[in-house]
Design goal:
Strand content: 5-15%
Shape: extended
Radius of gyration: 24 Å
Number of strands: 2
Structural class: mainly alpha
Number of helices: 8
Distance between the termini: 35 Å
Order of helices and strands: EEHHHHHHHH
Largest sheet: 2 strands, antiparallel
């Protein structure tokens, strides 16, 4: 996406402003952002604003809260057994060392991720329709199976029958699509 101001550089800054219920989105490059003064919010204290710095700040805030409640004699520094990244080092740089760090630091990361994602711990991103045909069907199938179980538990058998029929239809679509491949 090109910058809405200069129409030459790629837009790297995306701002959403809501005034009186009216939403406006602005997509501009970093240079135009600096010229318009949009960047002042991020650079007033630190010119090296980045997502890593933001994440490191959130992690350090959580770590400070935990240090208040824990016994200092019982603390053991968490670390990743694969890349040997320590949790303290992670909070300083804001980047994990490897994929195994997610498991090694799960107890520390989950509260932060829950706060960042408004209480959600499962990614609910969008799937492009042109490449996610089966994924959309599979996701709908999983949701219907959960609803079916809920209807059965509540003894709502008419709704359960509707969900069962929809599940069969989706499973048929998925099997037909697999045969075509």
């Amino acid at each position: 996406m090109l910058c809405q101001e200069c129409q030459t550089r790629p837009a790297t800054m995306h701002f959403t402003k809501i005034v009186n219920g009216q939403k406006t989105e602005t997509h501009i490059c970093e240079q135009c952002s600096n010229e318009k003064g949009y960047s002042n919010f991020f650079s007033s204290h630190n010119h090296d604003f980045s997502f890593n710095n933001l994440l490191a700040g959130l992690l350090n805030m959580q770590q400070a809260e935990e240090e208040k409640t824990e016994n200092p004699f019982e603390q053991q520094e968490p670390y990743c057994p694969k890349c040997h990244m320590t949790y303290q080092r992670f909070t300083q740089i804001g980047r994990l060392g490897c994929a195994h760090c997610y498991e090694a630091f799960a107890d520390n990361l989950n509260p932060v991720l829950r706060r960042l994602h408004s209480g959600n711990m499962e990614h609910q991103g969008k799937i492009p329709k042109r490449i996610g045909g089966n994924l959309h069907l599979q996701k709908e199938l999983d949701e219907l199976k959960q609803k079916l179980q809920q209807h059965i538990q509540k003894e709502e058998f008419e709704e359960a029958a509707k969900d069962r029929d929809r599940i069969r239809m989706i499973e048929k679509q998925l099997s037909d699509h697999r045969k075509e491949e």
